From TrEMBL:
Keywords: Cell membrane, Membrane, Transmembrane, Transmembrane helix. This is Probable membrane transporter protein. Belongs to the 4-toluene sulfonate uptake permease (TSUP) (TC 2.A.102) family. Pfam families: TauE (PF01925). Its main location: membrane. The lineage of its organism: Bacteria, Pseudomonadati, Pseudomonadota, Gammaproteobacteria, Alteromonadales. It comes from Alteromonas pelagimontana. PANTHER family: MEMBRANE TRANSPORTER PROTEIN (PTHR31154). The keyword Membrane applies.
Length: 351
């Protein structure tokens, strides 16, 4: 068949998943009489119709929309936004991940495996020992700064990022170690605090260091966020943790939307291209930063707002350093990392 042969797909697995999920959801709303709770929280379902599309078509989880809607629009605690992000992505991102795997889309497997192992350790450590000590205002600011930085990166580097083809692979063990550190650090410091973000960090490493094609980088980011969200939900259900009040009710309303919305984003963006969606989402990321500074201006003051802007600048400087590092590795990998190769999309699909 050759390298360009279309891989066999297993979409029946995804349909089985949908049947199991919707069966469980119907049991909750009909069998357990929770339909009024779902209807009462319909605004979150509407918001996540947009959020789930972004989750499947960009490297930003559904919490990218769910968090600011709950925290900035509905003025609920930031910790609730974090817990909701974990809970809703455990459905939406998992549905999108199963869809991606069933379609045999190319993934950066070495880095992804390392990131999963790192997240397996880092995310629980962050939930237990870091997140409980982060004030509500700082949760908002961490979210606002990271997402604004990510949005700005795409507003001025999108053409370059979207122009990558295939993926630069270094030594497989080196790729695994890179993913391991990303999963460990991002899981402990970003995902555990905001409920999202590990996907964006992994994606950033893929596009800036490995020069990965968006067709590889974005699906890989979806899978790591699904894994981390399921892990976050599992840890949150342990004694002594638990979800914030209101998470389940909002989840009940939005879950049936994201189970289809996130895979729909995966499907549609493959046909219309990723640049338009990334531009819109990047603009929203910058907008939520401005909104956060405005809504918290009384607490932050001029000094706090300047510090937030400096933090965004620091993140952008870090992104540029990663980009430079990636360029150096491509040129020096034959000496330092045992050689490099350019993995094409077709080759990745066949591997």
């Amino acid at each position: 068949m050759g390298l360009l042969a279309k891989p066999k797909q297993f979409l029946w697995v995804w349909f089985i998943w949908l049947g199991l999920f919707y069966g469980a959801w119907l049991w909750l709303v009909a069998g357990e009489g929770l339909w009024p709770e779902a209807v009462a929280h319909w605004p979150m379902a509407l918001a996540m119709a947009i959020g789930s599309y972004a989750a499947g078509s960009t490297p930003m989880g559904g919490g990218t929309v769910g968090f600011p809607v709950l925290v900035l629009l509905f003025e609920l605690p930031a910790s609730l936004g974090r817990d909701f992000s974990f809970a809703i992505q455990a459905i939406g991102m998992t549905s999108a991940s199963i869809f991606i795997l069933a379609r045999r889309q190319p993934l950066a497997w070495s880095i992804l495996k390392g990131a999963m192992l790192g997240s397996l350790v880092g995310t629980p450590l962050g939930i237990f020992f870091i997140a409980p000590h982060v004030p509500e205002l700082w949760i908002k600011l961490v979210f606002a700064v990271v997402w604004a930085s990510f949005g700005l990166l795409h507003l001025y580097r999108l053409s370059e990022i979207a122009g990558h083809s295939g993926m630069t692979e270094f030594n497989e063990n080196w790729d695994f170690r890179l993913g391991l550190w990303i999963g460990l650090l991002a899981g402990a410091t970003i995902a555990s605090v905001t409920g999202v973000g590990i996907d964006m960090v992994l994606y950033t490493a893929l596009v800036l260091i490995c020069r990965a094609d968006l067709k590889i980088a974005i699906p890989t980011s979806v899978v790591i966020m699904s894994f981390t969200s399921i892990l976050g939900v599992a840890v949150k259900t342990l004694p002594g943790q638990g979800f914030q009040a209101g998470v389940f009710e909002n989840w009940l309303a939005a879950a049936p939307v994201v189970a289809l919305g996130a895979p729909l984003g995966v499907f549609i963006v493959a046909r219309i291209g990723r640049k338009p969606t990334l531009l819109v989402v990047a603009t929203l990321c910058v907008g939520q930063f401005i909104w956060t500074l405005f809504s918290e201006r009384a607490f932050l003051g001029l000094t706090g707002m300047l510090m937030a802007l400096i933090a965004v600048g620091g993140c952008l400087a870090g992104f540029e350093r990663l980009r430079k590092w990636g360029a150096e590795l491509v040129g020096e990998s034959s000496n330092e990392y045992g050689g490099s190769s350019k993995l094409t999309v077709a080759e990745s699909k066949s591997s």
